[in-house]
Amino acid sequence: MLSKLIRHQALFSRMAMRRMMSSEAGHAGHEPNPEFWKKVFLYVSVPAIILSGLNTYFLEMEHLAHYHKPEFIPYEHLRIRTRRFPWGDGNKSLFHNPKTNPLPEGWEDDAGH
Description:
The chain is mainly α.
């Protein structure tokens, strides 16, 4: 009878220890569900990224439709070239855009005036 009581007590303490360990690990009866997060990514995140990209694209196209070049004023403190750039003709920066970046002499094409 005493040995039976000791076996039940040992079994009970092992079950209690398992419950305690699972609740300490943060699971507490909840199993991880990777399928849920996969669906959240596919059906929420991806459409949100696509919609924000389209919104940005259309806003930028609207901005470019109304863009006009400002009048070129040759300020002394702007577009200073102390030495030539090591690429191209040496006067244009690496990311030069002729529509938005004037050279020290003025705009490359005067069609925007």
